[in-house]
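User: Hi! I'm working on a homework problem where we have to compare a predicted structure to a textbook description. Could you give me the structure for the chain below?
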Amino acid sequence: MKSKKETFLQFSKSLPRKPYFLSMIILIFFFIMLGFIGRNYYSAYNLTTKFRLWMPLLLVALGQTFVILGGGLDMSVSSLLALVNVVTVRLLMSLSGSPFQVPIAILAGIGVGITAGFVNGLLVTYLRLPPLISTYGTQIVWGGLALRVLHQSGGEVPFSWYTVYSSTFLGIPFSVYLLALLLLGVYYLKRTGFVTQLKACGGNIHGAYESVLPVNKLRIQSYMLCGFFASLAAICIVAETVTGNPLSGSGYELESISAVALGGTSLAGGAGGFLGSILGAIVLKLINDVIFFAGLGVNYQVLAQGLIIILALAAGGQLTKQNTSRAQLKRRKKV
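Assistant: Happy to help. Predicted structure tokens:
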């Protein structure tokens, strides 16, 4: 049996080789910086509010991770998020006064997200369409449907949604409990071997076919999971804003992909993990806060954000290459 000290030392040595190492270092650096330049940034109220506002991106990044690990990409998450948003609000309005108003609206929104993910998966797997092109096409379709359901922002949502979503229990926000529950679900999928098989598809799809893995089924399921997480993100936005918005998902497709890449997951598929995606999403949000408290003008904020992301991705790519080279060198020595 290894002692706690030996286990800690072993973990410390392996930490720099973790795909999320760079995003973790950037996260710590930003947190320290915000402690100096951010006024009351670490107050309980501010952190609770921040995490609640970060939650949609965290969820979409988790969903995007499934797709990317399987060698795909989902550009439609932004419009899908908006579609689920307006469908949920429309149903809440239509079923006003019904005792089943809330569960029907939530289940319908989640059903829309999963169904849209299923369609994306079919286009990529059975029609053999490039993921970037096919999901860009469905992005336009979902966006058009969202505008058809609700032409502009509005709609009545029970204020109890905001009350529950913004509540805390034992000093911990409701959104943290929700994320923890979802991560347990992700852990279960890893234990069942689903994630490992998905990585095999993304790393070498021809080898996966030769290994008799159900490649098409696995990739469709990854898109359905992405749709599920996007629908949860939409419901979180509805609870936060207490209104419907057919443009509520604007920008989430690129932000989620950037978060996954910052977290060390290869955009080519087959390598990476979910913890890195969460760290990457938080880093993206902290970039905005650092830029704001640094007092940069509005004209320079987007420029600075873009430069930071590019530098972080470049450094992460270099770190991944070094880790791959080390792994290959070890295999050669063993041979």
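For your comparison, note the following. The mean pLDDT is 85. Residues 28 and 131 are 34 Å apart (CA to CA). Good luck with the assignment!
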